[in-house]
Write a structure and sequence with these properties.
- This protein is an alpha/beta fold and 210 residues long.
- The protein has a single domain, classed as Spore Coat Polysaccharide Biosynthesis Protein SpsA, Chain A, CATH 3.90.550.
- Helices cover 30% and strands 20% of the residues.
- The strands form 2 sheets. A 7-stranded mixed sheet has the order 5-4-1-6-8-7-9, sandwiched between helices. A two-stranded antiparallel ribbon has the order 2-3.
- Helix 3 packs antiparallel against helix 5.
- The longest helix is centred in the middle third of the chain and has 15 residues.
- It is globular and about 40 Å long.
- About 6% of the residues have low confidence.
């Protein structure tokens, strides 16, 4: 069902509210410490991402289980101003977090949600603007593409797609690309690939700071 085109039809987004969902439940094994709490220009990386997304999105939902490093390290500490969603299915990976976030956004009345990961410190409001140009009535997901690969963790999803993705998770699937295949998905070739850079290991962080 996924659309393999790299460019979606350019139309105006719907008038529905755009929520923001930050997936922060990862274990940060390669980094060796919680990525959400890493300092980025004087604030935790997660706080920066929440602040940038808040320029276009309301509400902002951070998805992380209560057992996660992000929740234990930042919740209730004066960290990012966001609503924490902690009921993602254990062991379901980012797909489980996506289901939890989209379900919560839908319950709050949002039709669309911008979704990103906690380890993308260079995202900007302009990235969200470009993704919104691809929103059509038929699109269930509009994701960023950098002329090399898809970035499902930088996209706008219809919140009512949560059920479809939950069905994918129920099969035991954990790949984000499996969700894209199950949805009507459009790709947007973004104008600035650096927006999509993620930080997985200490050397990634060093490279971005030099």
């Amino acid at each position: 069902m996924g659309d393999t085109e790299h460019n979606a039809p350019r139309t105006e987004a719907s008038d529905g509210r755009l929520a923001g969902i930050v997936l922060a439940g990862g274990r940060s094994r390669r980094m060796g410490q919680d990525k959400a709490a890493l300092d980025w220009d004087g604030e935790p990386m997660l706080a920066r991402i929440v602040r940038v997304a808040a320029g276009r999105c309301e509400p902002i939902l951070v998805v992380a289980t209560e057992e996660s490093s992000a929740y234990q390290g930042l919740f209730g500490t004066g960290g990012p101003e966001a609503q924490w969603i902690t009921d993602e299915e254990p062991g379901a990976g980012p797909l489980g977090g996506l289901v939890a976030g989209l379900s919560a956004a839908a319950a709050g009345g949002a039709e669309l949600a911008f979704v990103c990961a906690t380890d993308m410190p260079l995202i900007s409001a302009e990235l969200i603007d470009e993704l919104l140009t691809g929103v059509t009535p038929s699109a269930q997901a509009v994701i960023a593409h950098d002329n090399q690969r898809d970035h499902p963790m930088a996209g706008i999803y219809r919140t009512d797609a949560a059920g479809v993705i939950a069905d994918v998770v129920a099969t035991g699937e954990r790949r984000m690309t499996a969700a894209l295949d199950a949805l009507t998905t459009y790709r947007i070739s973004v104008s600035e690939p650096d927006w999509l850079v993620n930080v997985n290991a200490p050397e990634d962080l060093h490279r971005l700071r030099v």
